[in-house]
Design a protein that fits this description.
One of its GO terms (cellular component) is eukaryotic 48S preinitiation complex. It holds the Pfam family S1. One of its GO terms (molecular function) is ribosome binding. This protein has about 350 residues and is of the alpha+beta class. About 40% of the residues lie in helices and about 25% in strands. It folds into three domains: about 60 residues, Beta Barrel (OB fold (Dihydrolipoamide Acetyltransferase, E2P)); about 100 residues, DNA polymerase, domain 1 (Orthogonal Bundle); about 130 residues, EIF_2_alpha (Alpha-Beta Plaits). The C terminus is likely disordered.
């Protein structure tokens, strides 16, 4: 392996070119008279072209509305001329299923590539050598190196100790002999394991459900608080449940967990407990959004929505005695404090 100025440029997969009818991830580089020139991100940025006729199934009124420089998206491979290096691509022929599968594969490949490149750079070795002896054999054995990396997080030796390579040496009689040795040095192996664990140790997912809850009975606010406590009591150490008031009568239930399915199950139980408690006092609970995993963007949008509602609430005088609040059955709930949990 190289000892100085390692080459850190390399495609993600063993094949130098994609297959026809395969969806690949591209970035638009330039728009010309006939079409758009793009880089194939998974194949070390080799060039491809999307003819304008392959942008859309419909009549094109504005090219800029369909494609623009810098955009990253999946497209379909139409033709590959390996001798001339020409790759023709289509945007209009890629289906929703193709897009989803391509994005999922690319996100996994991009993470694997980032880890491999970092190890090659810090250990001063060529990235392609690391792929030849480690990355691509793992792709062949596990279907995708990402799946192998997931196993390495907890059981690195099972995966990495099976990787070998052949080296040629001069034997005792001067004849060249072939020896089978580990695919990488202990230093490279340790660096790879360290980086995989740092980048791939599971992070907690946030699971959220949106509900509407009302109670028009006397002491309705107390009954709602009791139902909220029942919901939070349905959580456990692995999946603690929190319920927040957005604005009467809308609430959100959340939990954080490493297991998405477990988080969804716990929130479903919390909603059931909450429903039983409020219905006992002739109240009503409606699930507006079922439990699902949410992103940081979803959390940000919710926070912005809550902030706007609080601001609107502050701008309206006499909210405490308004007929609207009375109708929601919320009584004297403090929106500011209830936003962080149950108001005592």
């Amino acid at each position: 392996m190289a000892s100085h100025s390692p080459n850190l440029e390399c495609r993600m997969y063993e094949a130098k070119y994609p297959e026809v009818d395969m969806a690949v991830m591209i970035q638009v580089k330039n728009i010309a008279d006939m079409g758009a020139y793009v880089s194939l991100l998974e194949y070390n940025n080799i060039e491809g072209m999307i003819l304008f006729s392959e942008l859309s199934r419909r009549r094109i009124r504005s090219v800029s509305s369909l494609i623009r420089v810098g955009r990253i998206e999946p497209v379909m491979v139409l033709r590959v001329d390996k001798e001339k290096g020409y790759i023709d691509l289509s945007k209009r022929r890629v289906s929703e299923e193709d897009i989803q599968a391509c994005e999922e594969r690319y996100n996994k490949s991009k993470l694997v590539h980032s880890i491999m490149r970092h190890v090659a750079e810090t250990e001063n070795i060529d990235l392609e050598d690391l792929y030849i002896h480690v990355g691509w054999p793992l792709y062949r054995k596990y279907g995708h190196a990402f799946e192998a990396f997931k196993v390495i997080v907890t059981d690195p030796d099972t995966v990495l100790n099976s990787l070998t390579r052949e080296v040629k040496e001069a034997g005792p009689d001067g004849q060249e002999v072939t020896k089978v040795v580990p695919a990488m040095s202990e230093d490279v192996k340790d660096a790879l394991i360290k980086n995989i664990r740092r980048r791939m140790t599971p992070q907690p997912l946030k699971v959220r459900a949106d509900i509407e809850m009302k109670c028009f009975q006397f002491d309705g606010v107390l009954h709602i608080k009791e139902a909220m406590r029942k919901a939070e009591a349905a959580g456990n150490d692995d999946c603690p449940v929190k319920i927040k008031l957005v604005a009467p009568p809308l609430y959100v239930l959340t939990t954080q967990t490493l297991d998405k399915e477990q988080g969804i199950t716990v929130l479903e139980k919390a909603i059931t407990a909450c429903t039983e408690a409020i219905e006992h006092h002739k109240g009503k609970l409606v699930v507006k959004e079922a439990p699902r995993a949410v992103s940081e963007r979803d959390d940000k949008l919710l926070a912005e929505h809550m902030a706007k509602l609080r601001q609107d609430n502050e701008e309206i005088s006499g909210d405490e005695d308004s007929e609207e609040e009375e109708d929601t059955g919320m009584g004297e709930v403090d929106v500011e404090n209830a936003g962080s949990g149950i108001t005592e």
